[in-house]
Amino acid sequence: MAIIKRNFGLKLLAVALAMVGWAYFRFATNPVLAARFDQQLSVPIATINLPVGLVAHFNDRDAVVTVEAPRGQPPVKPDEIKAVLDLSGKTAGVYNVPIQLVAPSVVVQSLSPASVALTVERVDRKTFTLGLHYMGSQPGIVVGDVAIAPANAIVQGADSLLGQVTSLRLEVALPGQPIVLDEMLRPVPVNSLGEEVVGVQVTPELVRVQIHFVHGQRRNP
C-alpha cells in the first residue's frame, strides 16, 4: 500500500498521459476515423442582373460543389447553396463569367466549373402575316372561304433565332369530306426549309381559323 501511495500524483499523471497518447494514436492515425467527410452537391446555375432587353445562352446548367460537411449537424441541402452569374452591365457579346456561390457558413473545397462561357444577345421582335399550310391530300375537296383572326402575329426572341424565322404558318389537315372548320390553331414559326424554329415566342399563342371545305377540283398551276 505504501508503494502505491509513493509518488501517487506522478503515477496518476503518467496514466492520464498514457490514455491521451493512446487516444491520439487510436483516432488521429486511423485513416477512416480521421478522414474529413466532404459532401458533393449539384447546384443549378442562374443568372442575375441581366439588363432588360437581353438574353443569355450557356451550356453549363449545373455546378458541382464540394463542401466540408459539418460534423454533428444535418447535411447541407442543395437549395441552401446558390450558383449565380452576375451579368451586371453586360451588353451583347461573348463572355466568360466566374460563378459566385451564395452559401451558408460552410467551407467550400471545390467548384466545377469555376466559370461559364456564355453569349449575350439582344431580344427583338418581328411581325409576320399568318399563312395556311395544308397537310395531306383529299381528292375532290377544295378550300372555299377562309378567315383568320388576327391575320398577323408577333415573333419575339434572340437575334440569332429570330433571324431564322421566315414565316408563320397555321397547319391544317385536309378533311375527307366537305366541312366548315372553326378552330383555334397555334402559329408555327418556321425557317426557309419549313422546319420549326424552337426558342422564340409567338403572340398570340392561338388564332381563330375558319375554313369552308367544299367539293370541287383543284386547279392545275
Average pLDDT rating = 84
The Rg value, from CA coordinates, equals 35 Å
Tell me the β content.
over 45%
Order of helices and strands: HHHEEEEEEEEEEHEEEEE
User: Cα distance, first to last residue?
Assistant: 125 Å
Number of strands: 15
Sequence stretches where pLDDT stays below 50 over 5 or more residues = 31-35
Secondary structure: helix percent: 10-25%
Oligomer: single chain
Shape: elongated
| Total helical elements | 4
What characterizes the major β-sheet?
Answer: 7 strands, mixed
Q: Which secondary-structure class do the elements indicate? A: mainly beta
Short description:
Helix content is 15%, strand content 48%. It is built from four helices and 15 strands. The radius of gyration is 35 Å and the shape is elongated.
